[in-house]
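Course assignment 3, question 2. Fill in each field.
Student: A.L.
Task: Predict the tertiary structure for the chain below.
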Amino acid sequence: MSIDGRLARRMWHQLEPIHAALYFSPQAFEEAAAIGYDVESRWPSYFAYRTAPLGRAGTNLAFATYYSFSPRTIAEHVPAVWDTASPEQVLRARHRAVDRTYRAMLGDGDGVGALGEAAELARQVAESVTVGGRPFAAANLDLPWPDEPHLALWHAATVLREHRGDGHLVALQAAELDPCESLVSLAAIGGAPVANFAGRGWSESEWAAAQDRLAGRGLVDGEGQATDQGRALRDQVERMTDDLAAEPWRRLGEQRADRLAQLIQPVLGAVFEAGILPMTSTLAIATVKVPD
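Answer field:
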């Protein structure tokens, strides 16, 4: 992995929780319920909030951009989410949800008001991304920038998170891992328990078939555990993902990136102290270690 790739991975660890708070906070569920979404499950609001920047997306566009969800799960929610509220209504609710979430965690006064420098640095990084082949990043970057520092910081974190995610799909396809195989191969290296992927909607038979395909390539053994070849391929995916995410961080430079990391520590700490994020996720953010 390049030096810039290592920096991109380090900053992903810092910014991912700041972005992800939207999908788990009580305030976000309240705002989703207020515009008509069923919040007994987190998926209706998740698909609405995350897909809204793409406009009134249909099933195929959503499947193409999400990649790892089963087509059935995508079709269950998209385009049906737009029958409840328009993308424009969802984006306004998303704005309110982020505002309320971060005011609850940081306080209305100095907590959210002290983020000006962090928001400015994060925006510089986000606005420097190259969006060719990056639909989620491009769609979010097309949205108006919020004036309030805490909202601008969240928006920048979202652009950068989606920029990285779009690149990750390129890396998965370069490794010839289809949507289900991408999850099976991640579970095989211990990135996350198989049960954590239940929400992606793949059936037991589809999961088993993907595991058989990987076994045929020598990537997993008979127990579904990664072989040395399988681990090497996943390392390749993570390394390529980091390198594809490196460009904006290269432009910012390590010194200013370190400054941004320092400035957002109170926000990061507030997210973890709030206890709204799951202890384990499907991102393997704390478990996958990529060798240099």
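Instructor remarks: The longest helix spans residues 149-174. The mean pLDDT is 94.
Grade: pending
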